[in-house]
């Protein structure tokens, strides 16, 4: 009986250590990712633009059809696929990058908080608060970068990215768990 109790105690200590190391590793990854985000915020528009690459690509690839007339306004800027396709494409690329970068941040924060054995809803809320804070600081930093604009709309885009990232992560884990349980039950 005493041996079983000692073994259970050892497993609990090992589990606590594993969770602590996982949490510390997650904090480190979150910190590194935040530094990556902020280093991109400090870059000027000219350092980040993909338009020269788009121009080179368009010289190599000829589109054999007319572009649709997709238009919208974001902030003070009008975007038109037919009239200014390079601006339009770069805008879509930049906003997609916002979604991706903040989806990764949210997943890293969420995963780290899950090591702390917190409730799922609490982890999601805390992760989105981290996304909102980092996105706000990111937008603040951008206003000091040449030819960059700071927009509260981008914080909304970043939060959408965070929500999508967590949703994809949670759904993927659920599918994997279900597939594993099927594999164990069929064997």
Automatic annotation (TrEMBL):
Record key words, sorted: Membrane, Transmembrane, Transmembrane helix
Annotated signal sequence range: none
Coiled coil spans: none
Domain VanZ-like: 27-171
Name under which the protein is recorded: VanZ family protein
Naturally occurring in which organism (per UniProt): Paenibacillus illinoisensis
Superkingdom field: Bacteria
Residue stretches spanning the membrane: 20-40, 96-113, 120-137, 157-176
NCBIfam families registered for this protein in UniProt: vanZ_1 (NF037970)
UniProt-listed InterPro entries: Phosphotransbutyrylase, VanZ-like
KW rRNA-binding (keyword) present: no
The keyword Glycoprotein is assigned to this record: no
């Amino acid at each position: 009986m005493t041996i079983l109790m000692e073994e259970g105690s050892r497993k609990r200590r090992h589990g606590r250590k594993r969770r602590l190391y996982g949490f510390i590793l997650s904090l480190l990854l979150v910190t590194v990712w935040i530094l990556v985000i902020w280093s991109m915020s400090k870059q000027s528009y000219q350092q980040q633009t993909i338009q020269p690459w788009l121009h080179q690509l368009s010289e190599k690839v000829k589109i054999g059809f007319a572009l649709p007339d997709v238009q919208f306004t974001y902030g003070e800027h009008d975007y038109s696929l037919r009239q200014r396709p390079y601006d339009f494409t770069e805008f879509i690329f930049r906003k997609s990058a916002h979604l991706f970068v903040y989806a990764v941040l949210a997943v890293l924060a969420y995963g780290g908080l899950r090591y702390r054995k917190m409730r799922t809803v609490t982890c999601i809320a805390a992760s989105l608060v981290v996304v909102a804070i980092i996105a706000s600081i990111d937008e603040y930093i951008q206003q000091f970068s040449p030819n960059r604009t700071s927009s509260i709309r981008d914080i909304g885009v970043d939060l959408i990215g965070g929500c999508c990232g967590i949703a994809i992560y949670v759904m993927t884990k659920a599918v994997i768990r279900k597939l594993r349980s099927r594999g164990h039950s069929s064997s």
